[in-house]
Amino acid sequence: xxxxxxxxxxxxxxxxxxxxxxxxTDRPILLDFGPRxxxxxxKTDVDRHTIQYLLFTHYxxxxxxxxxxxxxxxxxxxxxxSVRPDLTIYGPPGTKRLFRMMFRTFPNFADTPFRVILKEVxxxxxxxxxxxxxxxxxxxxxxQVCLGYRxxxxxxxxxFSGDAMASPNLVSLCRDVDVAILDCSFSSHAPGxxxxxxxxxxxxxxxxxxxxxxxxxxxxxxxxSNVVAQARRFFPGPIVKGKDLLALQVGSKVxx
Length: 256
Prior knowledge:
The chain is α/β, with parallel strands linked by helices. It has a single domain (2-249), classed as Metallo-beta-lactamase, Chain A (4-Layer Sandwich), CATH 3.60.15. 23% of the residues lie in helices and 27% in strands.
């Protein structure tokens, strides 16, 4: 299993794309699609027109907005070049309503040359080929369900918190995982609401007995502090500060 961070920041971070991850197992899977992540996807070795599976944690714009460009590009490619494979979109409750409204509203989105399958998930695992995906609701805001995902393939595992505060569900999601990629929006010296700071990430990884901790989803304030040192106060294992286009070979000792 290989994970490439397409976006390690949020919103309009000056040097980082917003949230997004490319997961490569027996097939490529995209998890979240924030602004500027599509440009980073184009820098990888994966042809965007072969991607058939998208996972969304929730629908704040910093996790979602590049989907619009990706989808319009997929329609144009299929009409004027060659038809792409069907696209399956997984997300929390409300996914079907949101996408159906969007497909009705945006010009040219309603009549696609390929099939779009919408699946709402919450806390039941499902298979994508040989890959097992387990969603769990996270604690983020009261307005919507935000999911974390655990992805397992050939004995390797990676957990993605999405936007999350520390919770029993997050610890469960990360239990004994090879790589825990966690929302580290803030420095421990300047914590904020609805997200974790670095020390909380360290505590979650320690409780879950994760093998490696990757910090991601940084606001600018987090980038101005040594978040790795803050997380290390509680987590004794390897800690990586995420950056755009960092590739992680899940189960290996060092990022590639």
